[in-house]
């Protein structure tokens, strides 16, 4: 944790390290990267593995070691993906999925954080909610699809409701734990300096909970994308989930894989945006965003 | 005048027999005085401070400030914790920490900013206003906590072993800083420590407590001239006598 981070150094922040004891620190030894003569970012190693696996896939498929009807070569999938992007078909379906996922995430994330934080801050309320929450929380969200169909029909409302339900729980759990993050010194400090109870909740307990809440929301966002795609497969006329299932049933594996890749890209893209927002929200933390 | 009368605090947990931390502590702190409170570790010094500033209700006895009983933290008092890092709000800069506790203070934004900046200057942190607490060393964090207490405008500073977790050199600097600022700004100080030398060095009066349930073992006036000096004062006959007397007292009880 950030607490006590700089405890032992009489100096300041890492970016302003003072030469201790009058000694000038020696130049850092040449790194392995330096010896290799490349300043390759650490991600490059991961990229090589991915490329290798894709080439392996291509080869196995071309050599018919994998059933080409179920696993077409990567190049064929890539061509299909590109065509679907150019035609706008996949972009439109992805847009629907993103909209539903974000709406579900918004509803479920806000609801889960609000409920969890309230349960954490007001122990009486938390105890009153406990049984109900522990009954609902392990319920598989897709089991609610049939109920949702009765109320909401097929499509947007249903996807939002089911995804919202699913992603509320990681947010809830994180917020309950987060509400207990502010230590006794911080709480007492707020009281000593005459802050009201509500000020203490809003300006002390809430910001202290923020790192955990952000971690919970990040999990929740991934859950929202997954659940929306699942719900689309089961009960929506469109969206990436529906697109993938239709392609599979029509015996068009290239289309199907293109849809699956699109789901991956949507998930990764939303995660990247969220991580960037989180870094801004937690800019006060040392090494913000590295956890 | 801050008066502590027959302060008693016992804790009972889940039906187990009550532990008595404070067994009727009485003493008073005159306005503008620097009073050190020493006692063996675990004798309830922190509990006493928490009761004095109204964070905790005593089981019996009372604390009065100018005749008014304290039941909730009053605006006249600021409490400085041993663990400064844990008491500074990590999401605010040092300046932000100070401005935050001035939320309810009267005055314009500009005036409060001025108050905050001058408090930082008083503790030598003027150049670190925009740093976050984790970017400062332990000693600087303690200075920041002190600046926050000063800016708050409390006439009484309560300090709970504030220098217990900094290195010896920093500790001497902080002692002299506190003594200087308190005198200059006419603050009343109640300073809790387990370190007898520190207690004597800083105080006008030392209150020594017995092991729990704590009572007042002795109240000793310290007849040393101000400002004190880390070398000269500590070699002074009167310093050594007071130190020896308290040592004997704490060993006996």
Question: How would you describe this structure to a colleague?
Answer:
The complex is a heterodimer of chains A (291) and B (253). Chain A is mainly alpha-helical and 291 residues long. Chain A has a domain at 79-281: MetI-like fold (Orthogonal Bundle), CATH 1.10.3720. Chain A has helices spanning 32-36, 43-62, 74-87, 89-121, 123-136, 145-152, 156-179, 184-192, 197-235, 240-249, 253-281. Chain B has a domain at 1-76 and 188-253: 3-Layer(aba) Sandwich (Rossmann fold). Chain B is 36% helix and 24% strand. Chain B is built from nine helices and ten strands. Chain B has a six-stranded mixed sheet with strand order 6-7-8-3-9-10, with helices on both faces. A four-stranded antiparallel sheet of chain B has the order 2-1-4-5, covered by helices on one side. In chain B, helix 6 links the parallel strand 7 (156-160) and strand 8 (188-193). In chain B, helix 3 runs parallel beside helix 5, helix 4 (109-122) packs across helix 5 and helix 5 runs parallel beside helix 6 (168-184). Chain B is globular. The A-B interface holds A 2-7, 9-13, 183, 185-186, 188-189, 191-195, 199, 203-204, 207-208, 210, 284-286 and B 50, 53, 55, 73, 75, 77-79, 81, 83, 85-87, 89-92, 100-101, 103-104, 128, 131-132, 134-139, 148, 152, 167, 170. Chain B: This is ATP-binding cassette domain-containing protein. Chain B: Keywords: ATP-binding, Nucleotide-binding, Transport. Chain B: GO terms for molecular function: ATP binding; ATP hydrolysis activity. Chain B: InterPro entries: AAA+_ATPase, ABC_transporter-like_ATP-bd, ABC_transporter-like_CS, ABC_transporter_ATP-bind, P-loop_NTPase.
């Amino acid at each position: 944790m950030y607490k006590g981070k700089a405890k032992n150094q009489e100096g300041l922040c890492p970016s302003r390290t003072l030469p201790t004891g009058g000694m000038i620190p020696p130049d850092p030894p040449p790194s392995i990267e330096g010896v290799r003569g490349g300043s390759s970012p650490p991600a490059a190693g991961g990229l090589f593995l991915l490329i290798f696996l894709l080439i392996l896939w291509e080869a196995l498929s071309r050599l018919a070691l994998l059933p080409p009807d179920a696993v077409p070569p990567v190049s064929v999938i890539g061509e299909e993906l590109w065509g679907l992007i150019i035609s706008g078909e996949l972009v439109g379906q992805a847009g629907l999925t993103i909209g539903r996922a974000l709406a579900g995430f918004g509803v479920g994330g806000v609801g889960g954080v609000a409920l969890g934080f309230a349960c954490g801050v007001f122990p009486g309320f938390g105890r009153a909610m406990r049984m109900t929450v522990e009954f609902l929380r392990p319920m598989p969200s897709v089991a609610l699809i049939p109920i949702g169909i009765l109320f909401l029909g097929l499509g947007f409302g249903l996807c939002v409701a089911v995804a919202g339900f699913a992603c509320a729980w990681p947010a809830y759990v994180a917020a309950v734990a987060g509400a207990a993050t502010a230590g006794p010194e911080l709480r007492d400090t707020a009281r000593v300096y005459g802050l009201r109870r509500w000020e203490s909740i809003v300006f002390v307990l809430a910001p202290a909970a923020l790192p955990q809440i952000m971690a919970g929301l990040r999990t929740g966002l991934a859950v929202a994308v997954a659940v929306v795609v699942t719900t689309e497969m089961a009960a929506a006329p469109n969206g990436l989930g529906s697109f993938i299932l239709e392609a599979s049933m029509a015996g068009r594996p290239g289309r199907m894989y293109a849809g699956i890749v699109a789901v991956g890209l949507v998930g990764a893209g939303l995660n990247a945006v969220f991580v960037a927002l989180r870094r801004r929200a937690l800019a006060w933390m040392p090494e913000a965003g590295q956890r | 005048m801050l008066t502590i009368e027959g302060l008693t605090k016992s804790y009972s947990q889940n039906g187990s027999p009550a532990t008595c931390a404070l067994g009727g502590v009485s003493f008073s702190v005159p306005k503008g005085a620097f009073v050190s409170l020493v006692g063996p570790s675990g004798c309830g010094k922190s509990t006493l401070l928490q009761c004095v500033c109204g964070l905790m209700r005593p089981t019996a006895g009372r604390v009065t400030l100018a005749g008014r009983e304290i039941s909730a933290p009053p605006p006249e008092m600021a409490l400085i914790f041993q663990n400064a890092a844990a008491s500074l709000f990590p999401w605010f800069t040092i300046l932000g920490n100070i401005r935050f506790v001035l939320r309810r203070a009267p005055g314009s934004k500009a005036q409060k900013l001025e108050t905050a900046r001058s408090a930082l200057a008083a503790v030598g942190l003027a150049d670190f206003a925009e740093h976050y607490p984790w970017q400062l060393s332990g000693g600087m964090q303690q200075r920041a906590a002190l600046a926050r207490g000063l800016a708050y405008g409390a006439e009484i500073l309560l300090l709970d072993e504030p220098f217990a977790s900094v290195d010896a050199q920093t500790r001497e600097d902080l002692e002299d800083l506190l003594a200087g600022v308190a005198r200059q700004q006419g603050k009343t100080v109640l300073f809790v420590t387990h370190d007898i030398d520190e207690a004597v060095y800083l105080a006008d009066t030392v209150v020594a407590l017995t092991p729990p349930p704590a009572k007042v073992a002795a109240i000793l006036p310290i007849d040393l001239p101000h400002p004190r000096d880390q070398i000269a004062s500590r070699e002074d006959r009167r310093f050594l006598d007071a130190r020896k007397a308290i040592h004997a007292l704490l060993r006996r009880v």
